[in-house]
Amino acid sequence: MARIEQDDGTAFEATCDVLVIGAGAAGLVAALRAREAGAEVVVIERDPVPSGSTALSAGLIPAAGTRFQREAGIRDSKAGFVSDILAKAHGEPDRAAVERVVDVVGDALEWLADRHGLPFSVIDNFTYPGHSARRMHGLPSRSGAELMDRLRSAAEAAGVAIVTEATATTLHVAGRRITGVGLVRPDGSTDRIGCRALVLACNGYGGNRDLVAAHIPALRDALYFGHPGNQGDALLWGEALGAATRHLSGHQGHGSVAHPHGILITWATITEGGFQVNRLGRRFADEARGYSESAASVIAQPDGVAFTVFDSRIAGIARQFEDFRNAEAAGAVIVADSVESLAARMHVPADALADTFAEVSALKAAGARDGFGRDFSGVPPLAAPFAAVKVTGALFHTQGGLVVDAEARVLARDGTAFPNLFAAGGAACGVSGAEASGYLSGNGLLTAVAYGWLAGAEAAEA
Known about the structure:
It is built from 15 helices and 21 strands. By secondary structure, the protein is of the alpha/beta class. It has two domains: 3-250 and 400-461, FAD/NAD(P)-binding domain, CATH 3.50.50; 251-395, Alpha-Beta Complex (Flavocytochrome C3, Chain A, domain 1). Helix 1 (25-36) runs parallel beside helix 15 (443-461). The two termini are 27 Å apart.
């Protein structure tokens, strides 16, 4: 579908200053920023209602040094955030890129709050793995669906034109400049929209099985938990134009998606003291290393499933997330008053599960590290009633993509910037490096909001 055609001088049916492909968080933030700068903005979205991968997430955006943190009494620094990202990704990401998105994301959140009424607050009752401070900012429901609803409403109120049920298929170019986009509608009709600047905000290639098999073979058969429209169009257009790409194997997985319900189970169930077992009732990895790298570990278990095990105290923390409440309502959360009855409801060997509970309890009591490398010091013990959710591993979104500069302009392979082409969110190379283990919680929405904010302002200038 992703094609490049030379502009032959034929007039476009419509024109605008800034054209944005994709109405997820990155695209709508870019559109809002460009509109504020006075640009006429059109957003193209293939769905009837904008949602994207953002709506499937918990809608949490990490930022350091914000007023929301100060109001919550949280001490943090941008330097600390940069260090956390680089440490998680083993130093692979470009440091300047990491510093840039960390520097601007807090400003973007405060701008969304002040100009567009998004009521952000910081999750202050637990810290995500790899973060040295509590810096996850979310809306009241702690859901990506609410984030999308509010961004869409803000865009509509600001006068951004969102063209839905329209799939961008073709970029029209004159030399290195993008002149417009061709699109197709469900009934087969086509349109061509001219533009002075183009923002690619159509995410990565997680929904394209061939590209996943080529770049992330370990997850070629994994459940894809992102938006099906993420077909790698930005990557394919960029490569055809001669754009530079980086870390195409980088991705965010998740090792705790309720099966078969398909509902995300917050990793707070692990960080607060829970653990995972397979169908044999045995642990199989260091769960605390992070939810992204845990996806492949879960998929490698018998039948590609596992159980996330926790207790009522942890369930109370997890209940602040709408997804978890939905999982409870759907019957995905198993509750029992004893380990034996929990094992029966999970259909796992009772003796094995009892042994696992005893081992974890002993490790917590001793503050020891287990054979997988998980440190249980300071981790609270589990207490009845106990809970469990049957889960599988999933691919959420890709983290590699087009290389962009400090203003979100797409760079060619020779290092020069395309004059009016920008990328944000999953379309751009993220800050997680080339491996799933490099993904720090929130990196996806970090670059969606930060690069969207930068791209919108620069596209309006272009």
